[in-house]
Amino acid sequence: MKVIIAPDAFKGSLTAEEATEAMQTGVKKVFPQAETMCLPVADGGEGTLSALISATGGVYKTFTVRKPLGHLVEAQLGVLGDGETAVVELAQASGLMLLGPGELNPMEASTFGTGELIRHALDEGHRKLIIGLGGSATNDGGTGLLEALGVRFFDAQGKLLQMNGSSLSLIDKVDVSQMDKRLVTTDIRIASDVENPFVGENGASYIFGPQKGADTKAVKLLDEGLLHFADKTAKLTGMRLHKLKGAGAAGGSAGALLAYCGARLESGIEVVLEAIEFAKHIQSADFILTGEGKTDRQTLDGKALLGVAKSAKVCGVPVFVISGAIEKGTCGELSEWFSELRALDDGSKTLVELMANASGLLCRETAHLMSEIKNSDLFL
Question: What residues make up the domain containing 221?
């Protein structure tokens, strides 16, 4: 028997790698001789870096870069098992997790550190990049990362600007003459599950600004700033980011990468599955185990588990889900893609208890499922 174990993170309790380990232990309790292949997944947000490095046998490299408010932090860059592809996770340098509750301020936050990580990847000789966008503390339209890559922004008086959310509306001139020339020969893939445009009521500022600390006034100013930058970008590059689907990811960083760095915007889970050669590995599998913190209708909107299910369906491999919780009333829709759905939350424990004991509960539920499979002789 061959079992592919490919969960996403159980946010707040287990990383994708920890969930994979718990599931594997559960499988081995019932089928000690089973061949298990661990391929943790992610959809472009936080955890994408670790999932890719774990699944491909890659390595981490650590660099000192700037956090959103300018302080220094040790951030990790990943190199896949192929030795060629570098992985930059925006959250490593520009993420919410790097700031305390009292520090959240998208008017002042910058993606400069993410640009530094990209530059380090180029310095290391990598010309294939995967950039995971998610969990950002920024709303600077990616101007900070562009600044780190050599783009210069000037105000109407010719003064060089230091970019952040509040600087967007001050841009009078964008000078790309000193932009890192290595970007021209670099294949950059953006891994993201965000479909929001750059500006407007469904754009980066209005949808994600509040969770980054922006009040109503700041949201309006940030959106106006992004609109101003989008206008300047259209004149300079010919690309209109304004309503472009997905350009609003990570406070507009996706838009900057698209317009100035020649990046391609792709489904985060599809990028991850391709990088870990998921389709090849599942061809000989008997079934797949996956899961996440909560499986709900959003799962069907291009999240990691749906990507796993789509690949499995092509090969006719059944997929079993064990998640922290399953949204009520969604099993009918989800059953089109998944053979069975199970939740660790049976109503007998508090959320705190579930999260504190997630690994043990996941291991036990996996073993329970394996026992049922064994008794049914389904794969024997």
Answer: 48-269
| 368 lies in the same domain as 302 | yes
* Cα distance between residue 63 and residue 65, in whole Å: 6
Per-residue pLDDT of the chain (380 residues; tens, 9 = 90+): 899 999 999 988 999 999 999 999 999 999 999 999 999 999 888 889 998 998 899 999 999 999 999 999 999 999 999 999 999 999 999 999 999 989 999 999 999 999 999 999 999 999 999 999 989 999 999 999 999 999 999 999 999 999 999 999 999 999 999 999 999 999 999 999 889 999 999 999 999 999 999 999 999 999 999 999 999 999 999 999 999 999 999 999 999 999 999 999 999 999 999 999 999 999 999 999 999 999 888 888 778 999 999 999 998 999 999 999 988 877 778 888 999 999 998 888 888 888 889 999 999 999 999 999 888 765 54
245-260: buried (b, 16+ CB within 10 Å) or exposed (e) per residue?
ebbbbbbbbbbbbbbb
Q: How far is CA 45 from CA 1, 90, 220, 369, in A?
A: 32, 8, 25, 29
Neighbours of 59 (CB within 10 A): 12
For the chain, how many structural domains are there in total?
2
**Any alpha helices (H) in 98-242, and if so which ranges?**
112-123, 143-148, 204-208, 216-237
Task: Write the CATH number for 201.
Answer: 3.90.1510.10
The CATH number given to whatever domain includes residue 328 is 3.40.50.10350
pTM beyond 0.85: yes
CB-CB contact of 221 with 107 (8 Å): yes
Q: Tell me: do 119 and 241 sit in the same domain.
A: yes
